[in-house]
Specification:
Two copies of one chain form a homodimer. By secondary structure, chain A is mainly alpha-helical. The first copy, chain A, contains five helices and two strands. Helix content of chain A is 46%, strand content 6%. The radius of gyration of chain A is 17 Å and the shape is elongated. Chain A binds a DNA duplex through helix 3.
DNA sequence: ATAAATACGACTGATCCGGTCTTATATTAC
DNA sequence: GTAATATAAGACCGGATCAGTCGTATTTAT
């Protein structure tokens, strides 16, 4: 209930791992997976998404891997979630992309008042950056 | 992602409905279900949980139904979630009951720092009461 | 050429969740 | 005392989601 997905957790763990160590260092998906006892394949996919979104940069081939290229204080948790889930974190369908087709939409009486809660949740995830979890 | 369940939404809609109208009035599950286009059986189960937890009182038999018996400003959203889901709203397994057996638990490096986010989420749902959604 | 790494899509098994159905019980109206 | 109307509660089902796996292609250093 209300929980972040494993993928997001793995992203945060991996990014934290990179942020902890010297900038410019290259980490392989495998070494991170082993270190934290995580499914290698799943972590790899997560890192690929982070690559596409520009949070890390990947080097292919032997001696390849991933490097963090953003300052930890510039990486918001909300952004990570957005990248991995491909949608914003919302407390109800109606606040998401295309939320108008929630079955309740027309009769819904709590959408307006809960907007404030959604807004505060947004703020919470926006103000929390990678730096805070180092 | 991070969304409240339909059951919680239905609870909030129903409770709001009751809170809007005069105190002491008895509402049937059916009339609420019809009014908001909600599955009657599901709503009924939700109301039964709210009855067990003392938020509403039920009257069985003909002319029966449910009555709100708590002041709207005394009913926290966090409490409703807790009652309906039978667990606290958490952003990760480790913050829930028996969270120690998350597969990541020992190697997890983000539990401690994310505690603050979890705490803020708790505050958010605690400070939001039924009154705010009327 | 080979080894080691990322890239990416397809597949699977388990779990969860919204919704339904059925039966029992309580209360009122007649 | 029977019928009608309500709550109470448990079992069941189908679809969706998700964590995790597998297979294959591609890139690059040695």
């Amino acid at each position: 209930m209300l929980q972040l997905s494993k993928k997001v957790e793995y992203a945060l763990i991996a990014l934290r791992h990179m942020a902890m160590n010297s900038h410019g260092h290259v980490f392989t998906a495998k070494e991170i997976a082993v270190k934290y006892n995580i499914s290698y394949e799943l972590l790899a996919k997560v890192l690929q998404k982070l690559t596409k979104s520009g949070v890390v940069v990947s080097l292919q081939g032997m001696h390849g891997g991933y490097t963090l290229v953003k300052r930890p204080d510039q990486v918001q948790i909300s952004y990570i979630i957005n990248v991995i889930e491909e949608e914003k974190p919302t407390i109800a369908e109606c606040y998401a992309e295309g939320g108008e087709d929630c079955s309740l939409f027309d009769a819904c009486t709590i959408r307006k008042p809960l907007e404030k809660v959604q807004h505060n949740l947004n703020l919470l995830f926006e103000k929390t950056t990678l730096e805070q979890i180092i």
